[in-house]
């Protein structure tokens, strides 16, 4: 690893530890105890196949080239950092960036499911951000649904010869928005409206999230583009190892 790469890595990790100290008040995805046991178990079971595929994907990536662990760690740190910066939005949840679009673009959506659940577990235990009982629901929305859409958007843009920088931005932006659409649906299923049921409740949750989440999604898209540009400058061998630089060419 060159001196520039070491400096960039140290700077990133320093930023991680500094931002990890943000106050925990109101800092939650879906907070501990907010979902009934039935929904907690159901969302956890739904996540199992994706997590199994994620373990397989990461194992294959590391077998192909051990240097991929550097980019995997960086993608995980990126998720941890920006998803820890939260803005109170609605009882039982909050608005924040997700950071999962970057990993989905580089390694695919299934690998991000593992990175995401690790981040969510650490945040629940160390920052009171989320919860253990709601880990399945939070994993599905942030580490499975969002990354899957980001990956699909990026691949569609690539096949359509869309500008790559714009493709990265759009993938990260829409992945972030979709995460909160799924979160709103999860909350609506758990707490349907007395008038209008799940649909009306989902609209209400989306309406509360939108004012804070839309600008955050735009910021996430911009940050993801900046990170990709930085990686192309300082981590070309690693990007070539996963085939990203070849795609860029």
TrEMBL record:
Q: In the UniProt record, what gene is named as encoding this protein?
A: cbiM
Record keywords: Transport included?
yes
| Functional pathway | Cofactor biosynthesis; adenosylcobalamin biosynthesis
Q: Which domain of life is it from?
A: Bacteria
Keyword field contains Transport: yes
Gene Ontology biological-process annotations: cobalamin biosynthetic process
Q: What organism is listed for this UniProt entry?
A: Hungatella hathewayi WAL-18680
Q: Which GO terms describe its molecular function?
A: cobalt ion transmembrane transporter activity
Q: How does it sit in the membrane?
A: Multi-pass membrane protein
Q: What is its biological role?
A: Part of the energy-coupling factor (ECF) transporter complex CbiMNOQ involved in cobalt import.
UniProt keywords (A-Z) are: Cell membrane, Cobalamin biosynthesis, Cobalt, Cobalt transport, Ion transport, Membrane, Signal, Transmembrane, Transmembrane helix, Transport
**Which residue ranges does UniProt annotate as crossing the membrane?**
33-55, 67-85, 105-128, 166-191, 203-231
Coarse class of the primary localization is membrane
> Which family does the record assign?
Belongs to the CbiM family.
Gene Ontology cellular-component terms listed: ATP-binding cassette (ABC) transporter complex
Q: Name its cellular compartments.
A: Cell inner membrane; Cell membrane
This chain belongs to which protein, by name? Cobalt transport protein CbiM
Q: How does it assemble?
A: Forms an energy-coupling factor (ECF) transporter complex composed of an ATP-binding protein (A component, CbiO), a transmembrane protein (T component, CbiQ) and 2 possible substrate-capture proteins (S components, CbiM and CbiN) of unknown stoichimetry.
């Amino acid at each position: 690893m060159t001196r520039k790469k070491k400096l960039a890595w140290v700077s990133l990790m320093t930023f991680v530890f500094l931002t990890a100290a943000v106050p925990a008040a109101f800092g939650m995805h879906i907070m501990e105890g907010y979902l009934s046991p039935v929904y907690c178990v159901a969302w956890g079971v739904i996540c199992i196949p994706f997590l199994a595929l994620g373990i397989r994907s990461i194992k294959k990536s590391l077998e192909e080239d051990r240097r991929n662990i550097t980019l995997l760690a960086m993608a995980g740190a990126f998720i941890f950092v920006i998803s820890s910066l939260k803005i109170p939005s609605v009882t039982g949840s909050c608005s924040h960036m997700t950071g999962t679009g970057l990993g989905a673009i580089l390694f695919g959506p299934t690998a991000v499911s593992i990175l995401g659940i690790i981040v969510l577990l650490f945040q629940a235990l160390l920052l009171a951000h989320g919860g253990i009982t709601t880990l399945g629901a939070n994993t599905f929305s942030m580490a499975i649904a969002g990354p899957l859409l980001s990956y699909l958007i990026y691949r569609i843009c690539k096949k359509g010869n869309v500008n790559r920088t714009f493709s990265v931005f759009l993938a990260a932006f829409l992945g972030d928005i979709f995460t909160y659409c799924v979160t709103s649906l999860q909350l609506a299923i758990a707490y349907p409206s007395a008038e209008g049921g799940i649909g009306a409740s989902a609209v209400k949750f989306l309406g509360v999230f939108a004012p804070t989440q839309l600008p955050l999604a735009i910021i996430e898209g911009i940050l993801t583009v900046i990170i990709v540009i930085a990686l192309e400058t300082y981590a070309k061998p690693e990007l070539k190892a996963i085939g990203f630089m070849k795609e860029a060419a």
